[in-house]
Write a structure and sequence with these properties.
Layout (H helix, E strand, L loop, with lengths): L1 E2 L10 E10 L5 E10 L6 H6 L4 H22 L10 E5 L5 E5 L6 E3 L7 H23 L16 H4 L2 H16 L7 H9 L2 H8 L2 H4 L6 E4 L8 E5 L5 E6 L6 E4 L1 H11 L2 H6 L1 H18 L9 H10 L1 H12 L2
Antiparallel strand pairs: 1-2, 2-3, 3-5, 4-5, 6-8, 7-10, 8-9
Amino acid sequence: MTTGSNKADHYGSVIFRALIDYDTKEEKVEQKSLIIKTTPFVEGNQKEFLEGMNLFDTEIKMYNEVIPKFEKILSDEREHRRIGAKCLYASTNPHYALIFEDLGKQNYKTASNWGGSWEIGKIAVEKLAMWHAMSFKLVNEGDQDLQSFSKNVYSEDKLYESPMFKHGFPNFVEMLKKQSDLEIYVSKFEKLLSEDPKSKVKALYNFNINDNKANWVVLNHGDFHIKNLMFLEKVGGKVEDVLLVDYQLSIWGPAVIDLTYLVYTILDDESRITRRNEIIHHYFETFTETLQKIKFNGDFPKLTDLYKDFITYKDLGTLKFFVLNGK
């Protein structure tokens, strides 16, 4: 048994890779590589912080109930596309544990092989739009189960008291003050800080409680970070497919939750600045095409609805930027 992820890639879990020997009906001994995911078990800040967060309950429900619904939609329409890794076993007692097929043995690789880019962002947003469209169809045609994913760690008070969130924005402002050529921006960012973006983001992640009026609401992956994507590499190094992993933060709410992650963690700097509208429009087109393919009969959301939500929830982008750049 060896470690199954890079150091610090997964704060909310511990991951191992295990090589299992098993006997077949033909009395042959074969091997299979599996990924085992469990909760942090060493006493300390990480274990204490995650207690009561229900991360594994969310992920187990996603694999046992939601992903099978999505796969059935695709199968019914003969769209044979994968959503995520196959979950072979899930347990809550005596310990939280999930066991998956090892995507690494199927030539899926983490984004560390490529890094953020326009090409990676484009293929990632296509799978995200497909995911969002299926959740949109289910809820708007009467399936209310997805709305039970009403909270994640961003809904909790103690997250915003953690050093990363408490000091990220102020540290960034202090850095600006020390750079003579950046001092002209200090007053602008101090104004943003005075508007308390943390409280606004927390309200967003308590979407159902606060009865926010978003225009484009879906089941979000919730942690659509480049580290939570696995890419299938073609001959020659090009990416053929992407799978989403780590559903511990999945949440029902405005689609801008996932799209903000896309902009700030998957696109490279140049694409984020010059091609942001292009990636959003590509999401819109793929979302709409997917609804058509899966025979959704209701009203389709408009691109203007999505842009209205980006404006309404602009504080999410502000906070993500400073958390990522001001730690």
